[in-house]
Specification:
By secondary structure, the protein is an alpha+beta fold. It has a single domain, classed as Cyclic Phosphodiesterase, Chain: A (Alpha-Beta Complex), CATH 3.90.1140. The protein is built from five helices and eight strands; from the N terminus they run H-E-H-E-E-H-H-E-E-H-E-E-E. The strands form three sheets. The chain has a four-stranded antiparallel sheet with strand order 5-3-2-6. The protein has a two-stranded antiparallel ribbon with strand order 1-4. Strand 7 and strand 8 form a beta hairpin. It is globular. The relative contact order is 0.23. The mean pLDDT is about 80. It holds the Pfam family 2_5_RNA_ligase2.
């Protein structure tokens, strides 16, 4: 939140405070009646995930998003992609779309103008930032429209007491 506040004050960009710092792993739109099934599937998946260390390392851009890079991103993305096939049936209702992230990051600000990106890239190139923390849970958030605030749906702890199930072959 410190960087989001500095960003808001320095660049007069209040949108930086619209969200709390977080790692988005999966974004999707879904009918509300699927919520319970999605929560149950995420609880099942959390049984296979042990708490893990997240290492943050420096500032970066992609498109018009300014973010803190996650150096341990591949470990996080492996968790998501290993269980992707078990989540897909719950994410395919109607014409709704889903997106599994390919770049683990903590967003500081999004929707920047090109001129803002140039100014920010010059002034934030020199400062370096490194930090680490243990991720011990995931949080499921939802919102009703694209610009409404997020609401917490469920907090799911990583238990890590089982191994991943594997599909067996009979023939």
């Amino acid at each position: 939140m410190y960087f989001k506040n500095v960003f808001k004050d320095t660049y007069d960009f209040p949108n930086a405070l619209n969200t709390y710092p977080h790692l988005t792993l999966l974004k999707f739109m879904q009918f509300e009646n699927y919520e319970g099934a999605i929560i149950n599937k995420l609880i099942q998946l959390a049984c296979y995930v042990s708490p893990f260390q997240v290492i943050l390392n420096g500032f970066r851009f992609f498109e018009r998003v300014f973010y803190i890079d996650v150096a341990t991103g591949s470990a996080i993305l492996d968790i998501v992609y290993n269980q992707r096939s078990s989540l897909l049936p719950l994410l395919r209702a109607g014409k709704n779309r889903y997106h599994f992230t390919r770049n683990a990051h903590v967003t500081i600000a999004r929707g920047l103008l090109q001129l803002q990106c140039l100014e920010i890239s010059r002034s934030w190139k020199i400062p370096s930032y490194q930090a680490a923390f243990i991720a011990s849970q995931m949080l499921l958030l939802k919102r009703t429209t694209a610009y409404s605030p997020y609401k917490q749906v469920n907090t799911i702890r990583f238990i890590g007491n089982k191994s991943y199930p594997k599909q067996g072959d009979l023939f």
